[in-house]
Design goal:
Length: about 190
């Protein structure tokens, strides 16, 4: 039976890994839609560009891209998106990962906690969060294990609305921490 899968896609490390992983596992009859929506760091332009590069690089003839118009709802924006997609897709995949064990880089105020994610999974049974127990360093290792590490510099996770990574937001600090932890040279991306 054909499965309709929606992947929340930002062009960051986590959602890019999931795009690759889903693409290599889905049946030819399944439908994969990468869903973008504008958030605090305005990822649309960067994510669309990366999607075009990867779709060509991977010979992806299966997926489509959808830009979802979402009202400004603060931290409730993602829940709004999950609710919307759950009504239209068989499975909604979200790439949020586990916060680092190093508390020195964690945000002082964490909007979402493990409890929030567990509640989201209960509220939205179509939701899948495969990386929730995986720290960023382990996700980056997957790129190296699958010999697709050349994609990492193309991803963009910065929490600032800038063309170049700021290097000081939580997302940048997490990326720096993860590369240091696995002993790899960091390229902050586009």
């Amino acid at each position: 039976m054909k499965e309709k899968i929606a992947l929340l896609y930002s062009g960051g490390i986590d959602s890019t890994w999931l795009y690759y992983d889903i693409l290599r596992k889905i049946d030819d009859f399944d439908q994969l839609t990468l869903v973008l929506f504008n958030r605090f760091n305005k990822p649309l332009k960067k994510a669309i560009n990366l999607y075009s590069i990867l779709k060509n690089m991977w010979g992806d003839k299966t997926s489509t891209l959808e830009i979802l118009d979402v009202p400004e709802l603060g931290h409730k924006q993602t829940e709004y998106v999950i609710s919307n997609l759950s009504a239209r897709f068989d499975r909604v995949v979200w790439g949020i990962n586990k916060y680092p064990t190093d508390t020195s880089i964690r945000p002082k105020s964490i909007l979402y906690t493990v409890t929030d994610h567990t509640n989201a999974l209960e509220k939205y049974p179509k939701l899948s969060i495969p990386l929730i127990n995986t720290e960023k360093d382990e996700i980056i290792k997957k790129f190296y294990e699958h010999e697709i590490e050349e994609i990492l510099p193309l991803t963009h996770s910065c929490g600032s609305d800038t063309d170049k990574p700021c290097g000081i937001c939580f997302n940048c600090k997490e990326r720096i921490w993860a590369y240091n932890k696995i002993g790899k040279t960091l390229d902050m991306g586009i």
